[in-house]
Amino acid sequence: MTRQTWLANLGGFVGVAIVLRPNLMALGPVAILPLVSALGMSMLVIGNRLSAGSGSALAMQFQLAAPAAFFLALTALAGHLSGVETLHVGAPQGVAILAGVVVAIVATAGHWCIYFGTTRAGAATIAPMTYVQIVCAGVLGWLLFGDVPDLLALVGVAIIVASGLFLWRGRQPVGVPDEAG
Fold first, then answer.
1. Which residues, including other chains, have CB under 8 Å from residue 9's CB and lie 6 or more apart?
2. Per-residue model confidence as pLDDT tens digits over 145-180
3. Which residues contact 6 (CB under 8 A, 6 or more apart)?
4. What is the Cα–Cα distance from 118 to 127, expressed in whole angstroms?
């Protein structure tokens, strides 16, 4: 990784910290979950790049989904056997099964898109495209939940986007030396 990549990543992390303002006192350990999610997504992108050309997109999806399904089933069973009423797992209703099927189809299609994108381009090329998620989450939060982003959240989003644009703008095509080279 270049110095520019490290700076952009640091800037993006600062922006995320400003937007999230994780407050362990108010939220408890759940405040760390967005960072864990971002780490997981980063690992997915890195794994896709490392495995490019070694298998089909369907094989990659299976290799991702099979351990996740096993872990989720094991966790649900542990919750069910724990004796805690809220963790009791009953027979799923038809709507829950239908929702599960829809989520499985959408998640598979989404992972295929991510896989194809990350195997054909580097993370620095793809990352700016994910900023649409920030805008969509903000707009949906506003429209559905009345959660209007405050000025500090908008500053954090601006830092995240600026970090991505800084990295994207500074990329050199393969084989083209920069001004120092």
1. 1, 163
2. 998 888 998 898 899 888 878 877 766 554 444 444
3. none
4. 10
* Neighbouring residues of 18: CB distance < 8 A, sequence distance ≥ 6: 152, 153, 155, 156, 159
CA nearest to 117, candidates 41, 62, 34, 171: 41
The pTM is what? 0.55
Torsion of CA 14, 168, 158, 22, to 10 degrees: -30
Average pLDDT in the chain: 79
Beta carbons of 99 and 91 less than 8 angstroms apart = no
Residue in the block written with tokens 């920069």: 178
Residue 143 CA to its chain's centroid (Å): 22
107-127 pLDDT per residue, tens: 888 888 878 887 777 766 676
DSSP code for 170 = T
Alpha-carbon distance 52 to 56, whole Å?
Answer: 9
C-alpha closest to that of 154 among 139, 165, 169: 139
How would DSSP label each residue in 39-83? HHHHHHHHHHHHHTTSS-HHHHHHHHHHHHHHHHHHHHHHHHHT-
